[in-house]
TrEMBL record:
NCBIfam families: adm_rel (TIGR01431). The gene is ADA2A_1. It comes from Crenichthys baileyi (White River springfish). This is adenosine deaminase. GO terms for molecular function: adenosine deaminase activity; metal ion binding. The keyword Electron transport does not apply. It comes from the Eukaryota. It is found in: Secreted. Its main location: secreted.
């Protein structure tokens, strides 16, 4: 229990007492990441850790995964370290190995990330490296994002010169920006949603504040930019207490593009994606939710993925077979 308590947000206390504010829970959240960092960046553990992660998602009936990753320097016991290209290649090799053993798993792609608390020069270097990696791994590297607590980090506009480098150099580097993961209004980071769209983000991570920005909401819907909603994360990190009050409920009613994501399931005691799908199903849709709601959310995961159109079609064919099997074999559906 002691080890688990230091590597996750689990607590024996009432969570409302243990984590009375966003500052407290975010500090604990980041401490847990620091605690686990040295364990999972040891090369043999790193490989097993990722393979086990794929296994858990596959067991949870996830057939395709887009993973945000910091691409750490992975170390060996002799003190040597591997660079980020090695780390990305290892992700690719293990994904290929996993697919070969599980042919009904469609695969995975990586969105490489950097911390939004970094300075301009560090992000410029990260974007330059991401452009090179995109060239070297065109079918496996999905794009780039900035992560970390938005309310304490720098706004996207602060990094505008670095984030404009791909367009200036004529290089395609898709963005998948975290934006609007805040319940504050009128701050610099509250403008991240508009800036993410101006920088042509492919999706919006969290987008909790989107309903407060009519222009951003209109633009994201018009451009087909989906919001990645992470119900458990938003609840645990104290953006919303009762999921019936989550802004995503209104977005879904308006038929705004929405996909359900699990953020950091291991930190929250969840597994794969089903926990978040369940909370979205009962929390956002209420008593009007039905099997069609789940079907649409699942289809959205493919439709708004980074896969090129032909691969999306192939993934949808594979998914449809799995869906038909689910509907046919579901004991709940047989009795309702």
């Amino acid at each position: 229990m002691f080890i688990r308590g230091n590597l996750t947000l689990f607590t024996d206390q009432d969570p409302e007492v243990a984590f009375p504010s966003q500052d407290v829970v975010w500090d604990r959240f980041e401490q847990a990441f620091r605690a686990v960092w040295g364990l999972v960046t040891y090369a043999p553990v790193f490989r097993d850790y990722y393979y086990q992660g794929l296994t858990q998602f596959y067991t949870d009936n996830v057939m395709y995964l887009e993973l945000r990753a910091l691409l750490p320097e992975v170390y060996e016991l002799d003190g040597s370290t591997h660079d980020r290209a090695w780390t990305l290649k290892t992700y690719q090799d293990i994904t290929t190995q996993f697919v070969s053993k599980h042919p009904d798993f469609f695969g995975a792609r990586i969105i490489i990330t950097n911390q939004r608390r970094a300075n301009r020069s560090a992000i410029a270097e990260a974007v330059e490296e991401a452009m090179k990696l995109k060239k070297d791994f065109p079918d496996f590297l999905a794009g780039f994002d900035l992560v970390g607590r938005e309310d304490r980090g720098k706004p996207l506009w602060y990094f505008r010169d670095a984030l404009s480098l791909p367009a200036e150099k004529g290089v395609t580097l898709p963005y998948f920006f975290h934006a609007g993961e805040t319940d504050l209004e009128g701050t610099e980071v509250d403008q991240n949603l508009l800036d993410a769209l101006l920088l042509n983000t492919s999706r919006i991570g969290h987008g909790f504040a989107l309903v407060r920005h009519p222009v951003a909401k209109y633009l994201s819907r018009k451009k087909g930019v989906a919001v990645e909603v992470c119900p458990i994360s938003n609840q645990v990190l104290k953006l919303v207490k009762d999921l019936r009050n989550h802004p995503a409920a209104a977005l879904m009613l308006e038929n705004h593009p929405v996909v359900i994501s699990s953020d950091d399931p291991a930190m929250f005691g969840a597994s794969g994606l089903s926990y978040d799908f369940y909370e979205a199903f009962v929390g956002f849709g209420g008593i009007t939710s039905h099997i069609g709601s789940l079907k649409q959310l699942a289809i959205n995961s493919i439709r708004y993925s980074s896969l090129p159109p032909q691969q999306q079609k192939e993934a949808l064919v594979l998914w449809q077979k799995r869906w038909n099997m689910f509907v046919t074999e579901s004991e709940f559906l047989k009795t309702n």
